[in-house]
Amino acid sequence: MPPPLSIGHIHVHALRLASGAEALVARVLSVDGVAGFGFSFGPEAFPARDMAAWDAAARGRGTPLYALFGKRMRERVAIGPKESGDRVIDPFGDVLENVRPLARSGNKLLAPNSHRWELTYCAALAATLAGEVKIAVSDEIGLESIEVPETPGIAIDWSLEPAFAALKWYP
């Protein structure tokens, strides 16, 4: 299931985050002029592009990302350490529509860098999943849960990273 919009332009930037990690940040501009943003901490740009397209689709409709997939099942998502034996799903290594069928009760969505962008994205994905779903993090981050945002799109606060705010996007 491709994102429900027609893409007019895609732009991807590589940037170094305040933590020292590298990220690929994508901006998708729909043919209707709606911009969406996505990211990838891996070497492939397609997860960032796919995330940005879904973000633009949700923003264009004025709805949170989770609403494109169904009813919100929870207001908060638990966060816990990744432990050996956990059944984890990597929502950043595959396109969004391939992740949802894998995320079943008892599984954890992996946020490998424990970055706030990852946590917000995982919360949006987990919102519509039935049963117990948690976000697994590699580092202690001082949060036990994260709220599922109601803001249109993915609802990531992009200003958390100074490098993102400094990006110059093509019109």
Residue fraction in strands: 25-35%
Number of individual domains: 2
Q: Could you give the count of β-strands?
A: 8
Pattern of helices and strands: EEEHEEHEHEEH
**Beginning-to-end CA distance, first to last residue:** 28 Å
For the sheet with most strands, the description reads:
5 strands, mixed
- The overall average pLDDT, rounded, is 85
Strand order across the biggest sheet? 5-6-7-4-8
Helix share bin: 10-25%
Low-pLDDT residue spans: none
Shape annotation: globular
Helix count from the secondary structure assignment: 4
Describe the structure in your own words.
This protein is of the alpha/beta class and 171 residues long. The protein folds into two domains: 7-64 and 155-165, Double Stranded RNA Binding Domain, CATH 3.30.160; 66-147, no CATH class. It is built from four helices and eight strands. The strands form two sheets. Strands 5-6-7-4-8 form a five-stranded mixed β-sheet, covered by helices on one side. Strands 1-2-3 form a three-stranded antiparallel β-sheet. Strand 1 (7-16) and strand 2 form a beta hairpin. The longest helix is centred in the first third of the chain and has 16 residues, at 46-61. The chain is globular. It starts with 6 loop residues before the first strand and ends in a 6-residue tail after the last helix. The mean pLDDT is 85.
